[in-house]
Amino acid sequence: MIRHDPEIQALYRRYCLPGRRYLKLGGAFLRMPREQYEPFVHALAADARAVTDAELGILFQGSWRERRTAAWLAAVSRRDHFRDRLGALLLESEVCCAGGAYCVALASFGTARDAGLLVAYLDRYLRRPDLPYDQPTAMGALAYTDTVLHSDRAGPLLQEGGLWRQWSQDTPHMHGDHDITSHLDGIRLACALVEECADL
Questions:
Q1: pTM
Q2: Which of 165, 93, 102, 177 is nearest to 137 (CA)?
Q3: Using CB atoms within 10 A of its CB, is residue 198 exposed (0-12), middle (13-18) or buried (19+)?
Q4: CA 138 – CA 104 distance, rounded (Å)
Q5: Does the pLDDT at position 4 exceed 90?
Q6: Are 125 and 133 spatial neighbours (Cβ–Cβ below 8 Å)?
Q7: In this predicted model, what pLDDT tens digit does every residue of 54-81 receive, in sequence order?
Q8: 131: phi then psi, degrees, rounded to nearest 5
Q9: What integer best gives the mean pLDDT of the chain?
């Protein structure tokens, strides 16, 4: 049940609304001119330092705007103790437009546990071409963790007859496109932003 109450609304105004941050964290930051990008990065880094664990917990109970923002704030502040919460939210896929941020956060933490949570999501949702949710982003995130961990968890999904191949073939908007390069690149750029903010 998504909460709609004054506490969430106050946190929404504090962390999500300034500069319509919640929209920019969907990928619009990649197209920002430098004069907008630098203040955006500094403000995101400052809020990631300022937000408390309790506030993040409340934001994760909100709508997609709050959840997307909370996932990014957790990633930038390196609060990997939220990984199981992020993995559960990704698996539940209760709201739209937030799953990509969960994938970014898990990829940025970059451990075998994070990869396992991505695999659990993909194992469930690559069997559902009728539910085109965040499978491409999760595949990109898993491939990214493979590069960090020098592992090959994505390999079995990507091979001929693998779940990714079958899903991309059976999902109408994918048009049988098996290539995950653009999804991997998107995660790589998002994780670079996380690193940039975290280093400030």
A1: 0.96
A2: 102
A3: middle
A4: 9
A5: no
A6: yes
A7: 999 999 999 999 999 999 999 999 999 9
A8: -125, 75
A9: 96
Region 173-184 average pLDDT:
93
pLDDT at 98: 97
Q: Which amino acid is residue 181, in one-letter code?
A: T
What are the structure tokens assigned to 103, written together?
A: 């994938």
Give the per-residue pLDDT at 176: 85
| 3-class DSSP string for the chain | CCCCCHHHHHHHHHHHCHHHHHHHCCCHHHHCCHHHHHHHHHHHHHHHHHCCHHHHHHHCCCCHHHHHHHHHHHHHCCCHHHHHHHHHHHHHCCCCCCHHHHHHHHHHHCCHHHHHHHHHHHHHHCCCCCCCCCHHHHHHHHHHHHHHHCCCCCHHHHCCCCHHHHHHHHCHHHCCCCCCHHHHHHHHHHHHHHHHHHCC
Interatomic CA distance for residues 167 and 37, integer angstroms: 36
The rounded distance, in Å, linking the Cα atoms of 82 and 114 is 11
CA distance 99 to 133: 8
